[in-house]
């Protein structure tokens, strides 16, 4: 029985655990799902929700804003020209020009670079993926898998609630650790018939040379930080050593001055005792008086 449950865990056969949440870390039913979304307490992967502003969504919002503006102006001015302007903006967004596409791609690469460098401050990144999906439960999601689970935990604690381009980031641990299970194979072969509303991960393609150069940059940053940390520690160690030496020196010099005073006082002791031996009747100060003074 246990073996059977383990085999079907997170698959379509599993009637308890949601296979989509288990594999992709996102399910279109969200909290209303009839199956369990088991959020991990720890994971090497974090999910930053909806942080990438997908150009299709941005265009939709702009279009909606233009439409409502046009509607406002038409209701105010009662003119008939808004129909043509509406159809114009429609054609603009549904058939984005080559220039728009190129700009969107450039923007995406800048975003990817930003995310990579920011997240790699917490540790070495194994994989970083940005969702190209359009479904509300996946749009703009960013997955980051670290080599080290503790780095993921640090990243989640620091990034969650922080702002990116004016929007608060919502970060959580993701159950996804094997992206081969999460990714849509059809999309990777440029043949997904479900398009943006597919429920498997459509990871936006990133040129490999860019990833390699980001890895090299962040590795260099980490090494520089490590060197700086080591230098700082060495300086602190040296300062402590110097302080200890100074303290010893001060102690020694105090001892020396006191012992020299003592030796001079013992000389006077001797002279006193000599004078006393010479004139035994003239004793006033005892030896104890001098030794007290030298202390
Ligand atoms: Zn679900
Ligand atoms: Zn797909």
Counting DSSP E segments of at least 2 residues, the number of strands comes to 6
> Segments where pLDDT lies below 50 for 5+ residues?
81-93, 279-295
Order of helix and strand elements from N to C terminus: HHEHHHEEHEEEHHHH
Gyration radius from CA atoms, angstroms: 38 Å
Helical residues, percent: 55-70%
Count of helix runs: 10
Percent of residues in beta strands? 5-15%
**Which strand order spans the largest sheet, edge to edge or round the barrel?**
2-3-1-6
Gross morphology is: elongated
Q: What gap, in angstroms, lies between the N and C termini?
A: 86 Å
Q: List the ligand species.
A: zinc ion
Mean pLDDT: 84
User: What class do helices, strands and sheet pairing give?
Assistant: alpha+beta
The biggest sheet, with number of strands, parallel, antiparallel or mixed sense and barrel status, is:
4 strands, antiparallel
